[in-house]
Amino acid sequence: MLEGIRTHKRTTDVDRKRQFSIVIPSWNNLDYLRLCIKSIRQNSSFSHQIIVIVNEGTDGTAEWVAGEQDIDYVHSTKNIGICYALNVCRKLIDTEYMVYANDDMYFLPGWDRSLMEEIKKIGHKEFMLSATMVEPAGNNPAVVHADYGSDLSSFREDKLLKDYSTLFRADWNGSTWPPNIVHMDCWDLVGGMSIEFSPGMYSDPDLSRKLWEMGVRIFKGKGDSLVYHFGCKSTGRIKKNKGYKTFTLKWGISAKTFMKKYLNIGSEATERIPEKTLSGTEKLNQFVKRIKSCF
User: DSSP state, 15?
Assistant: First the structure.
């Protein structure tokens, strides 16, 4: 695997005063990636380091990223998935904070200012924060549902930029999915992404669970930090791992139970998520799920 991976560091933080390192895995998804990076450049309040993990890049991604001098990148000739991709970029990161984003996201104005203000308010390193996704469809309680296009051909960018401030919602508990942000000390302490979830399904709640184990109790989504998410433009093309089974066997509870019962996902944000102890019946149900996950 290592023989097919090359790291390219072209930028420096000496005079840019960059705030976040935004890490974006991309797998032959050039048109969405270009729009994603355009939105970061155009709509961010601060300067940030942009790192792209180019998986394969046979659609022109490798050549395009190589020509963008404000982007640091890793190029893997094979698709190494999300977990390896995020881990391999660690030595490129210049800032204290890592933002993990998908390439099919469009960052809206002020997304980073809201997160930075919340970080300063928290005053310590032990947190996971998320921007709030705006999605055209679905029933996820942690997103805003508003249809500005399901793909690039139907995307109404001008309309979205005009309307985005009307889409703000209350802050919510349950930060798990990207775009999320953690301090690098927390990332390093829990060992980054867990490769047993490769190529990546359920690696997100696993990272949250690892942070929970180290004592993090702030998992907050910012309702005025918005990104538009086209949804599954890469994951819809891969053969998915059975991450829900891996999570249950690893932690003794299902990912759904962890996100719903522990992180209280989608509920109104609290300063700290309260401790949770499962009832006897809940523990029995989780034991049965763990047994089923063996098969």
Answer: T
Beta-ladder partners of 164: none
Structure token digits, residue 291? 């047994």
Question: In the structure encoding, which two tokens stand for residue 255, read together?
Answer: 């990912």
The torsion region of residue 176 among left (phi > 0), alpha (psi -120 to 50) and beta comes to alpha
Beta bridge partners of 268: 172
Question: In the predicted model, what is the mean pLDDT of residues 260-285?
Answer: 89
Over the stretch 84-128, which tens digit does the pLDDT of each residue have? 999 999 999 999 999 999 999 999 999 999 999 999 999 999 999
Query: Closest Cα partner for 160 from 148, 144, 143?
Result: 148
Q: CA angle, corner 271, sides to 119 and 221, nearest 5?
A: 60
3-state secondary structure of 130: strand
Helix (H) or strand (E) holding 280: helix 280-292
- Could you give the C-alpha distances from 76 to 81, 82, 123, 278, in angstroms and in order? 10, 12, 37, 43
Q: Which two tokens stand for residue 130?
A: 């998320």
- pTM of full prediction above 0.90: yes
Alpha carbon 14 to its chain centroid, in Å, reads 26
Decide: 286 and 257 in contact? Cβ < 8 Å.
yes
Q: Please say whether the beta carbons of 265 and 217 come within 8 A.
A: no
| Triad 199, 202, 207: Cα angle to 5° | 100
